[in-house]
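Readers of this paper often ask what the protein records in our data store actually look like. Such a record has a labelled line for the sequence and another for the backbone structure tokens. Nothing more is needed to write down the fold, since each code stands for a local backbone conformation. The remainder of this section carries one protein's record, kept here as part of the documentation.
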Amino acid sequence: MSARVPAAEADIIAAATILDRLNVSVDDLLASRRERPPAPTFAEYVPVVYAAMKPTRTRDNHLSYWNKIVKHWPDRRIDEPTATDLAHMINVIRSERSIRSTDRGGHGVARATADALRCLYRHAEQDRIIDAAHNPARQIDRTPQQKSSRRALPDTLLAQMYEVAADGQDPELHSILFRLHLETACRRGGALALQPDDLNPLECLIRLREKGGTERWQPVSPTLMGELCHHRDQRIPTGAMPQKARNGRPISATANRRLLRYRNGHPITVGCYDALWGRIRAEIPTAAALHASTHWLRHTTLKWVERNFGVSIAKAYWWRGIR
């Protein structure tokens, strides 16, 4: 019986056999390796990936964390960091976060940074800059999502918030926004995407377009529908495109189709929400302690629907791609 060939030697023999069969020499392999262009740096590659992605909130969220990574590793090539390096970078960005009253140890920042890294390295794989076996982002543990600390807001606090919303520089707009989110539990993006043709006064329905390209017709009260129709008829787009908003930025054609508008006819932006909730938190200490926002209204409505009509109806309101 012949002696067993050691594993390392067997691998060498097998590799040599395959190379002979393919008529490829070791020198050919080394030359191919040398001709491979160097991997781009983080500062070079982030703009490439950003430009290749669809213009979504996910892309913008990733960019905010990519920029933090670029700040630390502008000239480092993306094939250089190890899984340990990436884990360290996640912890660095976590430690640099802004501490708010709702801080939960930077759990969300760490999760978002890891997701941004996975996306970046997934593109690097697709571009053949690295291969799957040498992708350090694949070895990052996925942080489980924490259970939300939000709870349903009491009626007394909601009444106080609505009173503040309806008593500002633009009470009509802010009160409509507040009621829209409280009645429909829609996300901020759903309200911003509303267009004049999305109103169906006959059946008291509005069409909501939200995350993931989802779309649905949502019932609203006759009172809110009346206010939305009045708002549509009174606040009409001004002038011809292109226009510039108060902050100097151009108003895109998509934004100019929005239903909800300021008094000057310009479409609202996320700045409208910042102003609304900043005023509410400034005047109501409880709202400030909770760091109340539009998502608190959504959570309140979902809880109310679940308690009164059951989980299945609440899921229809929740609408995150029901399966």
Observations:
- Residues 1-5 have pLDDT under 50 and may be disordered.
- The CA atoms of residues 41 and 186 lie 40 Å apart.
- The domain at 42-139 is CATH 1.10.150 (DNA polymerase; domain 1).
- The longest helix spans residues 107-126.
